[in-house]
Amino acid sequence: MEESAIREGFENLQPGSDYDNLYHSALCRQEADWLVGINGTRLFKILYGGKVLKVGRVQTPTLAMLVDREAKIMNFQKEKYYMTHILMDGMDAATGRMDDKNKADEIAGACRDGQALTTSVVKEEKAVMPPKLYDLTTLQRDANRLFGFTAKQTLEYTQSLYEKKLATYPRTDSQFLSDDMGNTAEGVIEAVFSSLMFEENKASRPDIKRILNSKKVTDHHAIIPTMEIAKADLVALPETERKILSLVANRLL
User: Could you tell me the pTM of the whole model?
Assistant: First the structure.
C-alpha cells in the first residue's frame, strides 16, 4: 500500500519454500470447490428435473443457515409470561419470568403492604478497554450511526481513500495488525497528529502491542490510515471521505 513497505519487502525477501503451505491450502480449496460444486450442482440439476440449482463449498452451508434462521422467524410463536416488580424511588426489583399468572399475583400479594430490606450494596470499579481497530463491518456501523452513510457508501468512500493511498484495504474482517507492523503503526500515529490533529504527539508512548496479532489477521489487516496522509492535501478531499478518514484515524489513536 506504500512504496516504503514494498521496498522493505524486496530488501528482506524470504525463500518461496517458506510459503508452500499457503499454496497447498489454496489448492485444497480449489479442488474442494470443483469436487463439491460441479458434482453437487449436476446431482441437484438431475434430481430436480433439469433446473439448475447451484451447489458450492461455501454458498450452500451459508444458504442453509439463512433458511434455518428464516424458518425459525416464520414459525415463531408468542408466549405469555409474567413478572412481579417492586417499584420505589427509581429502583426496580423484579422476579424472573413466570408462565403462571397466579404465582406472579401470589408474590405480588405477599409483598403488598410489606417492607423490603436491602441486605447488601456492592460497588466495584471496572476497566473498559479501548475499542479494537476497524474492520469493514464495524466501520460501516459507526459511519451509519454518526453520519447516516449506508454500508455501500462507506465502502465506496473507504475504497476511494485506498485508491488514493490514504487508507489501507477496506474489505477486511480483521481488527488487528500483523506482528511486524509495530513501527508502521507508530509512524502512522505521528502522521495522524501532524496532518489531522495539527499538533505534536505529547502523549505517552502508545501501547502498540495491544493491536498486533498475526493470528487474527487473515487476508488483510484492520483498516488504518497510511503514512501518505502526512504529504496529502486532505482539505481537497470530499467531505464524505474526510469523515471516514477521521473515523479510522481516531480509532487508531
Answer: 0.63
| Dihedral-angle region of residue 89 (phi above 0 means left; psi in -120 to 50 means alpha; beta otherwise) | left
Q: Are residues 153 and 239 in the same domain?
A: yes
In the chain the beta strands, taken as DSSP E runs, fall at 85-88, 91-94
Between CA 248 and CA 131 the distance in angstroms is 12
Point out the catalytic residue in the list 81, 82, 157, 169: 169
Q: What is the pLDDT of residue 200?
A: 66
Whether 107 shows a pLDDT value over 80: the answer reads yes
Position 198 scores a pLDDT of: 62
Interior/surface letters 6-36, b for 16+ CB within 10 angstroms, e for the rest: eeeeeeeeeeeeeeeeeeeeeeeeeeeeeee
pLDDT at 175: 96
Are 150 and 83 members of one domain?
no
Q: What is the mean pLDDT of residues 139-163?
A: 97
- Domain CATH number, residue 145: 1.10.290.10
End-to-end CA distance of the chain: 20
Instruction: Enter the DSSP assignment of 193.
Output: I
19: annotated active-site residue: no
My answer on whether 147 and 97 are in the same domain is no
